[in-house]
Design brief:
9-stranded mixed β-sheet, two-stranded antiparallel sheet, about 375 residues, 2 domains, Peroxisomal Thiolase, Chain A, domain 1, 12 helices, alpha/beta, 11 strands
């Protein structure tokens, strides 16, 4: 069956973050609501305009109902599908389909978490699968360390190359006043940091922060009335391969191979056309794997690809321009922040970190332990033809 994704029929008209870093005194739903109001205000809309709500809160499995009540709205469509950190990009797919089919007119996608101020830790409460439990892994970091180790063994990837990912993220964060960590960081700093799960040190791992993000979507025929530069959704696709790392078919290949190929086909563009790339960098190995699997470089070449500042400010391919989960924000799930940064780049709202002339942006979400992958491609009006 032919892929009938509604290319260019919907657009993001407002995007915002709130409470990045530490936000003591706020519950997760408070943070999500603040980000939502901020995103709606950017589009000259109010909560009462929202009739499609897509949300996923850390400990609230009925968050579509909770946030509706909190905002005082009565949406026609709600969804709080959970696929880990990729959930919000799946929300964007379903929001686009709901908008294009007339199920709703204004869709709000929101997330908030007070993970840091509520004393959350990177070590999660993920249930240990019986095949892995005897080895006492510390999840999720042990799973990503396993993937990193295999990539190093198979392709000669080095710890220095992993560290180059963290350094590039920090250099972008230094251009972002909202980023949580902005101090200088060198490859040697990363290598010399506390080892968490060999070969990953604490600087190869994402932050533990508070924070919230939200985006507002509508149909393309209304978008120009709400935003001077809408970010049109050109393609988006999801793929899943496993839940437990022991069941991953190949530790060096993620389902981004599938999600990326379908998203690019829908959009009508290829990796070399993309101006800015926002990847879910929970760990430094993620960036390398996703650059390979999405087609920005051949499989096995990701480590060499990121060397020499290629993905840092001034490099050939701007990657994670807000500082990413490694240096900007990571409140449990980071996926929606990739979308906010991607569309703010297209809307020319990224201030010092703005990529000049950005017309096409890719956002990619990751859920579980390299389990769920979702790719979305956005463009300005010039990219619609």
């Amino acid at each position: 069956m032919k892929d009938a994704f509604p290319r260019g029929q919907t657009a993001i008209v407002g995007a915002a973050t709130y409470g990045i870093g530490e936000a003591p005194g706020f519950d997760s739903i408070d943070l999500a609501a603040h980000a939502a109001i901020k995103a709606l205000k950017a589009a000259n809309l109010t909560p009462q305009d929202v009739d499609g709500l897509f949300v996923c809160l850390p400990q609230d499995f009925l968050s579509g109902l909770s946030l509706s009540e909190y905002l005082g709205i009565h949406p026609k469509v709600t969804d709080n599908n959970r696929t880990g950190g990729s959930a919000f990009l799946t929300h964007i797919i379903w929001a686009a389909l709901a908008l294009a089919s007339g199920q709703c007119n204004v869709a709000l996608v929101a997330y908030g978490s007070n993970q840091r101020s509520a004393a959350g830790k990177l070590v999660s409460s993920m249930k240990q699968p019986y095949l892995e439990a005897p080895y006492r892994p510390v999840m999720p970091v042990s799973a990503y360390a396993l993937a990193a180790s295999r990539h190093m063994h198979q392709y000669g990837t080095t710890r220095e190359q992993l560290a180059a990912v963290a350094v590039a993220a920090r250099q972008w964060a230094q251009k972002n006043p909202d980023a949580f960590m902005r101090g200088d960081l060198s490859v040697q700093d990363v290598l010399g940091a506390r080892m968490v799960a060999d070969p990953l040190t604490v600087r190869d791992c994402c932050l533990v922060t508070d924070g919230a993000a939200a985006i507002v979507m509508t149909r393309a025929d209304r978008a120009r009335d709400l935003a001077s530069i809408p970010a049109y959704l050109l393609g988006a696709a999801a793929a899943t391969t496993h839940i437990n790392i022991a069941s991953m078919p190949d530790l060096t290949v993620t389902a981004a191979v599938d999600s990326g190929a379908r998203a690019f086909a829908q959009a009508g563009y290829k990796p070399s056309d993309i101006d800015v790339v926002e990847l879910y960098d929970a760990f430094t190995i993620n960036t390398i794997l996703f650059l390979e699997d999405l087609g920005f470089c051949p499989k096995g070449e990701g480590g060499r690809f990121v060397e020499g500042g290629r993905i840092a400010p001034g490099g050939a391919l701007p990657v994670n321009t807000n500082g990413g989960g490694l240096s900007c924000v990571h409140p449990g799930m980071y996926g929606l922040f990739t979308v906010v940064e991607a569309v703010q780049q297209l809307m020319n709202q990224a201030d010092q970190r703005q990529v000049p002339g950005a017309k096409l942006a890719l956002a990619h979400g990751n859920g579980g332990v390299l389990s769920s992958q979702v790719t979305a491609i956005f463009g300005t009006q010039e990219t619609l033809s």
